[in-house]
């Protein structure tokens, strides 16, 4: 009886886990996004695709592949018909998501203000402190090649800013641009870290002379 009860508990837990995974794909997402949302490691979706519960929106992509519930999958989790997502550029979204630490970071760090590549690199460093001047310029050239940003040479300096296509892509990815609130947060955290370091330094000095 005890073993039967344990098996029943395991089945309920497995069913609950499956339900949470399927619900996560009620809107298009990559496996990495769902892994982070649910705290799951190495999420495998082949079985769900084979059962007709999920479908890839850009099956040709090797990285940044998006999945969404099929009609069968939506019936399983008792969801209504989905909002249309067929008019989105999933290939372009996949291209950005395939480089989350560079393309996505730089794109999110841009807004309508015109900035130099170095200004953009500094803004991007809040999300990825390992970006270099060379890699930032390379990513900006890639984004411009995909018509997600605009650029202009003024004097001897080149400036970049996000255009409407780039903003639309960010919105489709359910992300937000890095804004002034993020700048204040970054400065606040930097100041807090500095004050904390000063506190420990003064505390160490006081112990030396006590």
CATH class of the largest domain: Mainly Alpha
Q: How many domains is the backbone divided into?
A: 2
* Number of contiguous helices: 10
Number of strands: 4
Q: Roughly what percent helix?
A: 55-70%
Task: Tell me the structural class.
Answer: mainly alpha
| Secondary-structure element order, N to C | HHHEEHHHHHEEHH
In CATH, the topology of the largest domain is named Arc Repressor Mutant, subunit A
Compute the average pLDDT: 82
Biggest sheet character:
2 strands, antiparallel
Global Rg? 23 Å
Shape from CA axes? flat
Please state the second-level CATH architecture of the largest domain: Orthogonal Bundle
Ranges where pLDDT stays below 50 over 5 or more residues in a row are 176-191
**Content of β-strand:** 5-15%
Q: How far is the N terminus from the C terminus?
A: 67 Å
Side by side, the strands of the main sheet go: 1-2
What does this 3D model show about the protein?
With 210 residues, this protein is mainly alpha-helical. 55% of the residues lie in helices and 9% in strands. The strands form 2 sheets. The chain has a two-stranded antiparallel ribbon. The chain has a two-stranded antiparallel sheet with strand order 3-4. The protein is flat. It starts with a helix and ends with a helix. The model is unreliable at 176-191 (pLDDT under 50).
């Amino acid at each position: 009886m005890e073993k039967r009860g344990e098996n029943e508990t395991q089945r309920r837990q497995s069913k609950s886990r499956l339900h949470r995974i399927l619900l996560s794909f009620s809107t298009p997402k990559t496996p990495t996004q769902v892994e982070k949302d649910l705290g799951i490691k190495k999420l495998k979706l082949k079985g769900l695709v084979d059962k007709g519960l999920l479908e890839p929106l850009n099956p040709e992509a090797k990285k940044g592949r998006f999945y969404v519930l099929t009609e069968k999958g939506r019936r399983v989790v008792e969801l209504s018909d989905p909002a249309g997502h067929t008019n989105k550029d999933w290939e372009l979204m996949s291209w950005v998501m395939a480089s989350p630490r560079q393309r996505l970071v730089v794109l999110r760090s841009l807004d309508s203000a015109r900035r130099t590549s170095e200004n953009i690199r500094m803004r991007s460093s809040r999300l990825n402190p390992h970006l270099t001047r060379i890699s930032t310029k390379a990513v900006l050239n890639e984004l411009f090649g995909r018509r997600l940003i605009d650029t202009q040479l003024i004097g001897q300096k080149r400036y970049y800013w996000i255009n409407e296509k780039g903003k639309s892509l960010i919105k489709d990815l359910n992300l937000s641009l890095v804004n002034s609130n993020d700048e204040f947060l970054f400065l606040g955290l930097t100041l807090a870290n500095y004050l904390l370091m000063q506190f420990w330094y003064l505390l160490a000095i006081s112990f030396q002379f006590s």
